[in-house]
TrEMBL record:
<comment type="similarity">
    <text>Belongs to the pterin-4-alpha-carbinolamine dehydratase family.</text>
</comment>
<dbReference type="GO" id="GO:0008124">
    <property type="term" value="F:4-alpha-hydroxytetrahydrobiopterin dehydratase activity"/>
</dbReference>
<protein>
    <recommendedName>
        <fullName>Putative pterin-4-alpha-carbinolamine dehydratase</fullName>
        <ecNumber>4.2.1.96</ecNumber>
    </recommendedName>
</protein>
<dbReference type="Pfam" id="PF01329">
    <property type="entry name" value="Pterin_4a"/>
</dbReference>
<dbReference type="InterPro" id="IPR001533">
    <property type="entry name" value="Pterin_deHydtase"/>
</dbReference>
<dbReference type="GO" id="GO:0006729">
    <property type="term" value="P:tetrahydrobiopterin biosynthetic process"/>
</dbReference>
<keyword id="KW-0456">Lyase</keyword>
<dbReference type="InterPro" id="IPR036428">
    <property type="entry name" value="PCD_sf"/>
</dbReference>
Amino acid sequence: MSADPPLEPAAIQSALAALPGWSVDGDSLTKEYTFADFRAALVFMMQVGFEADAMDHHPEWTNVYDTVTVRLRTHHAGNKITAKDITLATAMEKIVTA
Ligand SMILES: C[C@H](O)[C@H](O)[C@H]1CNC2=NC(N)=NC(=O)C2=N1
């Protein structure tokens, strides 16, 4: 068994209650963040990027001007959602609401 087993759907749904704007898309957690401008989007990516790297758990994301679209899944768990994805999504929410 992997150290990070895929979460059951019920566990994902209960975690989503505390993650506004996040949803399940296939086997990933996803959210589209919109910022004031490109610079603010870039600051978010830098802050999250350092935290994600410290966690050794990295987002898949795209940036177009003021928008960052995030997809979270765990490669080592067959590309399924694990507790690490919930932890990283929670860290992103703390960063945007700080
Ligand atoms: C060796 C290193 O721990 C792994 O490759 C890490 C890096 N970042 C990761 N990020 C994500 N999203 N899933 C992983 O399984 C993963 N594994």
